[in-house]
Design brief:
Length: about 300
């Protein structure tokens, strides 16, 4: 017997909830904000809109379906099933945070605060949730957004929708060798503040800032395009380290290999530093287009 579809609602704590967790009471949180020239009313208003959106989306789940909820902080411990329909209720960044834990499940993005969020990935309103849930299980329209992956030589693997960053855990300098995957040589020795490999979805964020800073003539990829761009941040020229490989692009089947030559390098995706890979002396990692893509229901 096949199970009914399951709707998984993904959300994150609101700013108001974080303030209460820190200060204990509404009054103390209000005093804290007022001492910094802010009003708690706007924070409570956004909190109320987010909670109402969650209630509206939960009510739109078909009665014959199963449902579950997961908070952003628990994503790395939540087990998504192949038949799930994932409903992200919040900001664009929450879709990216969720994508790395999925494997082809359809994703519906619900904007809880229209006009405040850009709406690049959370494109729909609460009133559309029921229709979109049914469409997701019926093979409705969707975009396949390209993702980037990092695969270490010890089989650790990390996925990201926007970008993957490799670099020092603090403000030190990372030392490593960098070159195309499959190259016979060891790669160019470099010292820098890290390497960023990004997708077309990430081209509206961190990747774009580096692209603009460099005055790159290479066009930014589109979200569904199977192409990545990579940049080395602040590469340092010295007698032992070079700067000839500081930018490039990767297509399907191409890879960038980094071999660690310092005590510790962290690898994390989409700003999720709490869920990072850690590599040390002699380890290598390959960056490239992931086989998995984000199935974003449109």
């Amino acid at each position: 017997m096949s199970l009914a579809p399951r709707a998984v609602l993904v959300h994150r704590r609101t700013e108001y909830e974080e303030l209460l967790a820190r200060h204990g009471t509404h009054g103390q949180a209000a005093f804290f904000l007022s001492s910094r020239g802010r009003s708690i009313d706007e924070v409570v208003g956004r909190h109320d809109r987010t909670r109402q959106a969650l209630r509206d989306v939960a009510a739109a789940v078909p009665l014959t379906w199963r449902s579950s909820r997961v908070e952003r902080a628990d994503l790395d411990r939540f087990l998504f099933a192949p038949g799930d329909v994932v409903v992200v209720v919040g900001q664009d960044g929450l879709v990216a945070n969720t994508a790395k834990y999925l494997c082809g499940q359809p994703v519906v993005g619900i904007d809880t605060d229209p006009g405040r969020n850009p709406g690049v990935l959370v494109r729909h309103r609460c009133a559309d949730a029921g229709r979109l849930l049914r469409a997701a299980t019926a093979g409705g329209r969707a975009e396949e957004l390209t993702m980037v992956e990092a695969v270490a030589d010890d089989a650790q693997r990390l996925l990201a929708l926007n970008e993957i960053y490799l670099g020092p855990p603090g403000h030190q300098t990372a030392r490593y060798r960098l070159g195309p995957d499959g190259e016979s040589g060891p790669g160019e020795a470099q010292a820098s503040s890290g390497v960023l490999v990004g997708t077309g979805t990430g081209a509206t964020g961190w990747l774009r800032s580096l692209w603009l800073e460099r005055g790159s003539t290479t066009g930014l990829p589109a979200p569904c395009e199977e192409r990545l761009l990579w940049f080395v941040r602040e590469a340092w020229p010295s007698p032992a380290t070079g700067t000839s490989r500081v930018t490039g692009e990767l297509g399907r089947g191409q890879g960038l290999r980094l071999t660690v030559e310092s005590d510790r390098i962290v690898v994390f995706g989409d700003g999720m530093e709490s869920d990072a890979l850690e590599l040390t002396w002699g380890q290598s990692v390959r960056l490239g287009i992931a086989e998995t893509s984000l199935h974003l229901v449109t």
